[in-house]
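User: Here's a chain of 386 residues. Predict its fold as tokens.
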Amino acid sequence: MREVKMPTQANSSIAPPLSQSRLNLMGCPHLYQKRVIEGLQESDNPFAIRGREFHDVRADYVVHLVATRQRKDPAKLDELLNDNAISEDAYQLLTNSRDEFEIDPESVLHIEQRLYLGDDFEPVEIPKFAAYEGKPDLVLINGAEARIPDYKTTFQIFDADTPQGRLYSLLVMIHYPFVERVVFELHFVRYGSAKRKAEYTRDQISHLKGRVARDRDRQLALHALTERGEVAPAIPGEACIYCPLLMTTCPNREINDYAVSTPEDLLKEEVFLKARIKRVSGLLKTHVSVEGPVSYSDANGHTYSREFELKERTTFPLIPVLETLIAWTKRTGEDITAKLKIGATELKPLLKAKKRAELATEVEGVKIVEQYTQFSLKGSEDDDAA
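Assistant: Prediction complete.
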């Protein structure tokens, strides 16, 4: 069967509700077609098991805290960990937050409750009438604000403005009309207090509907394509890591880098290429410094060159800029000073002198520390990040 482009519209009755897990599978249309539409059975992967174990124990713990009206109960968490045979990774992630994790039991609206919306974004209770669904880990209420903490066991920290966050925020605001603002928080439990958040307000509902509706259209198009007996395209990406089709029936397996190279092979190649790039760049720099620019054109007519190019670096003196921003705030009411930050690279050298020790202490009291993940290559001659 041939691969074809997907249409943009289809009958919603042929597809299950759009959810986070189905949206993730749609990263590879072929995998979605096999898994969701054709019902391909597959074994669990370590990533899915780890996440499910963590969430199951965490949910049971929160249920206990709400039932007993406690903010935290480390002894109960120990009991749950002893009663559940979970993987070592999930166990460590839960125990690492044993003493710090707490909630206000009075603020809990619901725990892992599945919410549904119909085709026209109306709340529905029966799954078969739903076009959209989601099961937030936890929803906390503070007046007209809802907070949705979502716990991630991944190794990479990423921003919270995601399809999952938009879908969950829309579900909560439509089901609970008193909610005017939703804060969707990603808690990266592997890194302690590291988190990212995205905020949505009720006046953004139309925008949120439009975004999730486009995802729904893609889902419906995949079902319509399958109804016509056609094969959805396979798109290499994150879904390949644990894809059950990768080494067997993936249409692209012979040219898919995820299938032909192991992670170790890729790392070996990266180390070699970085060393080669460093050597080649050094040789080119010497040639160009003496002989001038060098260039060549490829078979497609693209021209590449190496040369010393004169550049300008623009900086702004701190006090005049700050005074200008404060004046702007007074005129317009818009305060953007919080977005103006000084990098540690620029500030630290100024604070090293002994005579400025008191100043360094005062500055230390206002510093902002935000955790992030950097994809680093360790062990090479020049360790650096990609």
